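Lecture notes, unit on protein representations.

Consider one protein chain, 174 amino acids long.
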Amino acid sequence: ALDWAAQEARERGAGLRIVTATLAAELPFVAEGEATSGATRRERSHAAGHVVAQARRRAETVLDPARIETTTIWGHPAGVLVDVSREAGLVVVGHPERGRAREYLTGSVAFAVAAHATCDVVVVPRGELVLPGPRVPVIAGVDGSPSGGRAPPAATPIAPFSSPTLRVTPTGPP
């Protein structure tokens, strides 16, 4: 998601705010090896700072460092991203495939952000960076709801940068 967001910010001539959300409390269920597993608040803060620093260095390979801002916010990732969406033109969120049990219990951050953000949201799946291009169309899903009707106009500015195709796909009733 970071790579996609940095590319999009460059194409739009926009700034990039990299946000990392860190849970202040221990979850009773965590995947093996996750930073929150048994870590103190101080250790989680240090780990989050490291993540943000790495993300900034990675974004700087694509975007002018003066256009990059980083921040770490304590809270649930979905809630934090919904809150910061109030000040954003676009939120780009990754959707890593972890385990079904964790996603079932904690909810999908990407789904929650897409459902509740106050600006447009792009969900980028985990894996190799795939940017829209001649063989990769931009797809806007519409469900007949008032907010769903905003998808094609919101996707239209993305398509001309790199893809000749904008595909609008009905997703069913709201």
